[in-house]
Amino acid sequence: MTDRLRIVFAGTPDFAVPPLDALHAAGHELAVVYTQPDRPAGRGQSVASSAVKRRALALGIAVEQPATLRTDDAVAHLREYRPDLMVVVAYGQILPQPVLDVPRLGCWNIHASLLPRWRGAAPIQRAILAGDPRTGITIMQMDAGLDTGPMLLVRETPIGPRDSGGAMHDRLSALGAEAIVAAIGQWQAGRLEAQPQPPHGATYATKIRKDEARIDWAQPAVAIDRQVRAFNPWPVAETSWQGRQLRIWQAEPESLAPRFAAAAPGEVVESAGGRIVVATGDGALRLTQVQVAGRRAMTAAEFLNAQSLTGARLG
After folding, report:
1. Which are the contacts of 202, defined by CB distance < 8 A and separation ≥ 6?
2. Residue 177 backbone phi and psi in degrees, to 5
């Protein structure tokens, strides 16, 4: 058995770059990288390449960007690369069965959750929103279902009380890079066994909608805190103040002082000494980094140096 596998890699965003790098560094033969077509991005809507495409070209790897893999021609073209394995991570297309059948070892997916919990598009944010104490990476043998295939390897990591969506994204991306190389190594050593996903406990991580970032101050402070952390760096939790959007980048829950017990949800109860504290449906939320529309993000102290929140009601 050779140590090098001939791999087709399919991925698109930043999350998929460390696994691509890890497979390259491990010495596997990366025959081609599949990624989504170049699309308009940013405020100027300039056409931009994916993070994976940019990295693949820097590594000297061929790139394919089909709009779909659901045609006979697309499947036939993939077959020409004669892959041993296809590694898929945040590619952005559901692979049809004919594609899954092309590599002799099938298609392995790097999924950012402890399956069967949080199948679907947004497992990192959903885990934080739900208050899960831990998450992880599952290397999964893909089948025709949505993240339903047998598990090949699992790596766990805690979700800390201050971890944001961005922090977990980076940690899980690095963990996925380690896990896919380890899974291939275990397969080569004859020690990798596929295990079916547990029959109970499946949840679905629906795609994040921008309107979910709107804060409902009647919710408990701990729930709003999870919302702030989950949606950093996108779409960023927000509220309104004086008719303007106020984005909340960082915050921490704390107890509501007894003297503010009658405060309405959304009422700013402290706005001095660098502290912005807002009453919620249960407890209080201390805002530590905020951003008014059209301005840069700033600390609470910086914001209070320029603005007054005395008597303000957010939302």
Report:
1. 116, 117, 119
2. -65, -45
pTM for the structure as a whole: 0.95
* Helices 165-188 and 17-25: angle between axes, nearest 10 degrees: 30
Question: Nearest to residue 12, comparing CAs of 73, 65, 74, 77?
Answer: 65
* Length of the chain, in residues: 315
Q: Which two tokens stand for residue 162?
A: 């201050």
**pLDDT tens column, 252-285:** 999 999 999 999 999 999 999 999 999 999 999 9
Picking from 100, 103, 115, 204, the residue whose alpha carbon sits closest to that of residue 152 is 115
Sketch out the chain's domains with CATH numbers: 6-205 (3.40.50.170), 210-306 (3.10.25.10)
Per-residue pLDDT tens for 287-315? 999 999 999 999 999 999 999 898 899 99
H or E segment to which residue 176 belongs: helix 165-188
CB distance 311 to 268 below 8 Å: yes
Whole-number pLDDT of residue 1? 40
Predicted confidence (pLDDT) per residue in 195-224, tens digit: 999 999 999 999 999 999 999 999 999 999
Cα three-residue angle 15-186-84, rounded to 5 degrees:
70
